[in-house]
Specification:
The protein is an all-beta fold. Helix content is 0%, strand content 62%.
Length: 120
């Protein structure tokens, strides 16, 4: 799994007031049913648009601190999901790791490392 802001490097520098796309790339190593993907929203950001579902998605839930994406069936391969965010407050923030898990077998999960985000 890989999370990044479109057009930026690992330690992202974002401009306050300019919408940005948070991209999540999920690689399924085997077929999986009922996958839940939790994507944290960094502090200092809010949602710019809550409009579209990606490939393999059946539902999204938007919370103030994270977005949860549900898929009923994922075949082996790579899936890309995007969330439109609006950076609002200047400062340095942490982008917590995204986590993918099987809903009925929560012991099987994957995640990535924590990253830094700066809003100017």
């Amino acid at each position: 799994m890989k999370t990044y802001f479109k057009g930026t490097e690992e330690n992202a520098v974002l401009e306050a007031g300019k919408p940005v796309e948070l991209v999540v790339e999920l690689t399924a190593k085997a077929d999986a049913d009922f996958v839940m993907l939790e994507v944290p929203v960094p502090a200092g950001c809010s949602y710019a648009d809550k409009g579209r579902l990606g490939k393999g998605e059946v539902h999204r839930e938007y919370f103030r601190h994270k977005t949860v994406i549900f898929s009923d069936s994922l075949k082996r391969g790579t899936y890309t999901y995007s969330i439109m965010l609006q950076p609002r407050f200047r400062g340095k923030y942490s982008l917590n790791p995204a986590k993918a898990s099987l809903m009925y077998f929560p012991t099987f999960f994957g995640r990535e490392k924590q990253k830094q985000v700066e809003i100017r």
